[in-house]
Amino acid sequence: MDPHTLGARVAVGLIAGTLVGLTGVGGGLVLLPLLISVLGVSPIVAVGSDAVINCITKIGAGSLYWRRGNVDWRLALNLAFGSIPGAVLGVLLLAQIRAVYGQGVNQVLKVAIAVLLIVIPIAYVFARDPSTKHFHLTDSPSRNYSFGIILIGFLAGVLVGVTSIGSGSIILMLLLVFYGYAPVILVGTDIVHAVVLASITSFLQFRMNNVDTMLVAGVLLGSIPGGLLGAHLTKYLPPGRFKLLLCCVLAVVGGRMLWAFILHDN
């Protein structure tokens, strides 16, 4: 790998890690458009590599929440009951799309990613802020909600299998909107579950040869310190405003990707 390529990958990782650490917006949501638009990585390799990057970057945070006792294991298990088969189905769907369309799978992925880049940031803006909710750590929804949680996990699993987006962003938003968990429990459980989901998805993407290990290594060199930097900057910068700005930028990027596909298709 030449120094310029490595430098670009580290820079992209640093930018993505900093933005995620500062705003809390899902890593895949921020990193994927950078991999595709800035580094010129093909969408299918970007999806596979992003799954591995997400898995590795969330291990540290997940273990921290685990040690602090901020993980609801029943919630994580219910999510996994849906997300694991969903992820397997998503990856199989991706393989089938590639078998049918060949390299055209990259265009399909561009459309799917563009739509998610538009929909998820808008939903983030209008979702309730967990910091405004007042629950105790022991608060937990009724067991009668298990089917709904499994369904949320399944939906997120399919999206992660196809696009690598959703292990944090989709699950966190849907649980926030439909269920009442203590914020620290909600975030901790979501991260630990995301590690499991991303691990399985990463393994499947490796089997499909969709992972560029050198790309993963380069981005991680920047994203890990970037995440620490972003978390540190929250002491001095208004995360809420940056989150709103980032969501607007992501929605514009998604709209641009979708518009470019429409023009190219016509």
Number of domains: 1
Strands, total number:
0
Largest sheet: none
Structural class: mainly alpha
Whole-number mean pLDDT: 82
Shape: globular
The parts where pLDDT drops under 50 for at least 5 residues are 130-144
Please bin the fraction of helical residues: over 70%
Radius of gyration (Å): 18 Å
Describe the structure.
With 266 residues, the protein is an all-alpha fold. It has one domain. It has ten helices and no strands. Helix 3 (43-67) packs across helix 9 (213-233), helix 4 (73-101) packs parallel to helix 6 and helix 4 runs parallel beside helix 8. The radius of gyration is 18 Å and the shape is globular.
Topology:
Elements: H1 3-23, H2 27-38, H3 43-67, H4 73-101, H5 105-126, H6 146-163, H7 169-178, H8 183-207, H9 213-233, H10 239-265
Helix pairs in contact: 1-2, 1-9, 2-3, 3-8, 3-9, 4-6, 4-8, 5-10, 6-7
Concise synopsis of the structure shown:
The chain is an all-alpha fold. The chain is built from 10 helices and no strands.
Offer a few descriptive terms.
mainly alpha; single chain
